[in-house]
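Expect sequence, tokenised fold; for instance:
***
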Amino acid sequence: MNTVWMTVAAYLIGSISFAVVMSKLFGIADPRTYGSKNPGATNVLRSGNKGAAIMTLIGDGAKGWLAVWLAIRYQDQLQIGDATIALVAIAVFLGHLWPVFFRFVGGKGVATALGVLLGLNPWLGLATLVTWLAVAYAFRYSSLAALVAALFAPFYYGLLFGVEPQLFAVFAMSALLAFRHSKNISNLLAGKESRIGSKSKEAVKPRKK
């Protein structure tokens, strides 16, 4: 029973879209209406509001970390196994991709996935983050950095901890992240992908009613 309610709770935590919430708080357009139409930190940055983008990044990452950290922290008290922790990791990630609070229209999951990895193990998250930063710095494409980091994340986990239930959760997240970036992959191949920091003319401040 603990496994069920923890998995549901993780999904609900993941369903909080900080891109939408922060955009409303900062008075900028809904990120689902401009740029890539993806409610994530990179698209919020296209509005030109760095504060909103930073808070979105922190929020989306923190919710992934929190769900996993709580599961690990109370693992003994709740008598749950590694399989439950793996389910929690996937559930919070799925909540971000398909949030129940926002008509199942969510982001691509990069920040939330990083939060999950940091929750599973700080070294795992750090290795993945360094990979993302290196590719992003070299090529200035957030999507490319995310795809490369997602490719290496399962490798890092297997190298550090071997084959465990959480490894399959990391594999699942990496596969889903690649799936959510399918359009970006096409744009990268066609040379049409937007670089980090590029602004969208559609990201105007909403009109007050």
